[in-house]
């Protein structure tokens, strides 16, 4: 009798195994992970160091380094043991000066591709490459209802427990540890059990309540904003648990974001105050603002200060009218207000608009017109009021829709400034402006996100 081929388990489908030996290539800005090349073969790795020679094999979770054959001169020991599994820091095994130099070179290549001859100044780097993130958002998971907090594995919904994440600010980690004790005391359970490795589908919903925990800290003033994302507005433990969370050191207010469905954006639901103040103070250099939980704020306080200086430095010394599109709570306008006489801000997030209006009223600022609305819907109205000297575009990472750039080209302001960490979108918008008659007259960059391939870039354009 002929030997029968063993049947494949339905949970472990047959998969062709590939093994290559090659060198990890230099990365491009905004690239997700790194690429290893051996002849015509390429594999995408979640982490690594350009210049490493490695042996790579494919697995159910994707390619992994089987052996480090020859390390790059830039290789260091990473601080995080979860480097290959977490979806966050792909460059942590690379020295920080090496990261900044590689990002500078990648930006220089892009400027050449755009036909620019403008001189690229040194990329601003953070004083500390660890403990810099002042905003923490951790999803929940766990087996048999036990609560675990962490981040999603790259390309999946599988949770990687990471409560000691070394890039988070120490105040965030201290607050998280205290919050965890309170949650455990009240038997708060997650809304999902962990997915199997390699499963890209959301894990099944169970009877738990907590989607995620969000923490924002102000390193200068010491205040902490705490937000829980839950499936319902019925807090486990009720008012007692809220009060206990509100008594934790530094916590200015405890907030609840309700979202019946578990999603990749757990804080998008309606937010209400459980206890404490509705706004938290954040300090940047000479600027102190009170922000609500739903208002965008950069993940690095030091990086934000560097960005404000760079944006101000690329503006004219003194001009009449600034139009700030995608303004958020107006931090860029507020941080550069010594440069202009008047400003019109436009932002779709109502919470951020209310934060800015409250600040302008309290500080008795003159020359501020704060508008609410989607940029693509109101841009012609705003730019059509009177000619703007400078238009500032600071869109989300995905960038502006093409109609926004087209509207800017129709109205032809003297100077257009693009601010973005979404590099592909930034390049696409830059090409639109270049094709429309503008040329690049200034550039600056801040390494807002060490250990990643992201870079906060500012491009200034003027009419040719």
In angstroms, what is the radius of gyration? 24 Å
CATH architecture title of the largest domain: 3-Layer(aba) Sandwich
Shape: globular
The CATH homologous superfamily of the largest domain is termed Vaccinia Virus protein VP39
Instruction: Give a count of the beta strands, DSSP E runs of length 2 or more.
Output: 21
Name the average pLDDT: 90
For this structure, the quaternary state is single chain
> Which structural class do the helices and strands define?
alpha+beta
Order of helices and strands: EEEEEHEEEHEEHEEEEHEHEHEHEHEHEE
CATH topology of the largest domain: Rossmann fold
Distance separating the two termini? 82 Å
Structure description:
A hairpin with a 2-residue loop joins strand 2 (34-38) and strand 3 (41-45). Mean pLDDT is 90; it is low at 1-15. The chain is globular. The strands form four sheets. Strands 8-7-6-9-10-11-12 form a seven-stranded mixed β-sheet. The protein has a seven-stranded mixed β-sheet with strand order 17-16-15-18-19-21-20, sandwiched between helices. It contains nine helices and 21 strands. The chain folds into three domains: 19-88, OB fold (Dihydrolipoamide Acetyltransferase, E2P); 114-128 and 300-463, Rossmann fold (3-Layer(aba) Sandwich); 135-284, OB fold (Dihydrolipoamide Acetyltransferase, E2P), CATH 2.40.50. The protein is an alpha+beta fold and 464 residues long. Helix 7 runs parallel beside helix 8 (402-411). It starts with 18 loop residues before the first strand and ends with a strand.
């Amino acid at each position: 009798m002929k030997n029968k081929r063993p049947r494949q388990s339905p949970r472990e489908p047959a998969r062709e195994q590939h093994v290559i030996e090659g060198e990890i290539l230099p990365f491009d800005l905004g690239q997700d992970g790194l690429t290893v090349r051996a002849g015509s073969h390429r594999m995408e790795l979640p982490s690594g160091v350009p210049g490493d020679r490695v042996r790579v094999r494919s697995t159910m979770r994707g390619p992994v380094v089987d052996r480090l054959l020859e390390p790059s001169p830039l290789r260091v020991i990473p601080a995080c043991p979860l480097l290959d599994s977490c979806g966050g820091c792909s460059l942590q095994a690379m020295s920080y000066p090496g990261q900044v130099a590689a990002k500078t070179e990648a930006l220089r290549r892009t400027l050449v591709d755009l036909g620019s001859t403008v001189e690229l100044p040194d990329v601003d780097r953070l004083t500390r490459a660890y403990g810099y993130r002042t905003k923490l958002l951790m999803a929940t998971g766990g087996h048999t209802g036990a609560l675990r907090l962490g981040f999603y594995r790259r390309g999946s919904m599988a949770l990687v427990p990471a409560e000691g994440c070394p890039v988070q600010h120490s105040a965030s980690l201290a607050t998280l540890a205290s919050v965890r004790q309170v949650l455990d005391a009240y038997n708060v359970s997650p809304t999902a059990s962990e997915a199997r490795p390699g499963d890209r589908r959301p894990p099944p919903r169970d009877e738990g309540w907590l989607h995620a925990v969000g923490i924002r800290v102000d390193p200068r003033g010491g205040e902490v904003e705490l937000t829980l994302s839950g499936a319902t507005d019925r807090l486990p433990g009720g008012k007692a648990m809220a009060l206990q969370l509100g008594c934790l050191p530094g916590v200015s207010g405890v907030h609840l974001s309700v979202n019946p469905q578990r999603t990749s954006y757990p804080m998008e639901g309606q937010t209400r105050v459980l206890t404490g103040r509705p706004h938290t103070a954040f300090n940047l250099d000479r600027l102190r603002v009170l922000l609500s939980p739903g208002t965008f704020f950069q993940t690095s306080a030091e990086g934000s200060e560097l960005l404000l200086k760079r944006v101000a430095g690329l503006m004219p010394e003194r001009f009449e009218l600034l139009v700030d599109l995608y303004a958020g709570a107006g931090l860029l306008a507020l941080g550069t207000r010594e440069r202009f006489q008047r400003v019109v801000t436009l932002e779709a997030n109502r919470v951020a608009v209310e934060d800015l209006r409250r600040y302008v009223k309290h500080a008795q600022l003159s020359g501020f017109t704060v508008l609410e609305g989607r940029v693509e819907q109101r841009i012609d109205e705003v730019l059509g009021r009177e000619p703007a000297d400078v238009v500032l575009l600071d869109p989300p990472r995905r960038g502006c829709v093409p109609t926004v750039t087209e509207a800017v080209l129709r109205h032809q302001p003297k100077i257009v400034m693009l601010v973005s960490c979404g590099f592909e979108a930034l390049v696409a918008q830059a090409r639109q402006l270049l094709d429309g008659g503008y040329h690049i007259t200034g550039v600056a960059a801040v390494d807002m996100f060490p250990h990643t391939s992201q870079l906060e870039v500012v491009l200034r354009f003027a009419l040719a």
